[in-house]
Structure formats: structure tokens, C-alpha cells
Amino acid sequence: MSRLLARFFGVTSQHAAARTAVLPRRIRVVTRVVSTSHGLQSLTRYNETTDWQKKLSPEEYVVTREKGTELPFSGIYVNHYEEGMYHCVCCDAPLFSSEAKFDAGTGWPAFKEAHGTWGRDESHASIFRRPDNSLGSPGTEVLCKNCDAHLGHVFDDGPDPTGERFCINSVALKFKPRENNNLENNGQN
Ligand SMILES: [Zn+2]
Q: What CATH architecture is 52-177?
């Protein structure tokens, strides 16, 4: 019996030693996955110490960091229908796909839904909504989930199936054509 126990403990401690030996490598692997994974986790979370005035043009700064609005029909993406992704001009998070873009005739880029939306679920999208009464009536502001950039507003007069219209400032966006996206992803991997 004592020999069996000794053998049992011997095996157990061997396993424990093996686990200890493996552990540092596992930790390294997990750390690597978090720091290089796609989407939001790979992006730097900007905070109040980020010097946006240095990083952005004056127009980009006023719109995204001071909740400004570009003049209607002034933005470069109003009548832009190339295939690709519209990213946050501040932090590069992918915000809206060209497939969701439509012509609302209002003078600002319009989208039916945010990239990553599943039905009404926006938990995987890079945007979030916040109540905003600055337009003179109860409204909803749209911001970048990663860096809090002001992007525009969302209204309930959009086309089916969402019935929503994301009215987004061109200067808050940075368009990347689909081919360039693929090249960039390959380069990062
Ligand atoms: Zn952002």
C-alpha cells in the first residue's frame, strides 16, 4: 500500500512538475493572442492623455473630439460608393461597410447599420449610441466604441430592414478599399 501511494504521489508530482514547466509557455501564448488578435482587441485604447490635436487635422478634431458637424455635401464620402470599409479616422476601428451605405440625399454619408451588427445586436460593432438632445429634439449620438470619437447621429427614417439611418460625418471616416484591406491583413499576419 505504501509503495502504491508512493508511486501515486510520484506520478502526481511529475504531472505537477510538467504543468509548471508548461505554464510559462501557455502564458506567453495567451498574451500574444490578446495583443495581436483582430478587431477591437488589437487596437490601442485611447484615453484622455492622447493628443488628438496633434494626431488629427483641424476639421477632424472639431468633428470627432468636439462633436462638430461638417457642412452638408462638403464631405468626400457623400457620393462615394467604392467597395470597402469605412474606419474611424482617429483609431482605425472598422465602423461601416460599403455594403450598408446608401444615398439618403441629406448631404452626409448614410449607412443602414454598423459593421459587425447582427440583427439588432450591436455588441460586436465598433460603435455605440448615446442619448443626445443637442439637435433641438431627443436624438441619438453615434460614437466610436474604441476611442469615443463623435461620428454623427442615428435616425429612425432609414430603409428596410433596419429602418435606421446612420448619418455620419465624412471627416470622421477613413475609407479603405477592399483590396487594400486584404493586403493589410496579410501584412499584419
Ligand atoms: Zn475610434
A: Beta Complex (2.170)
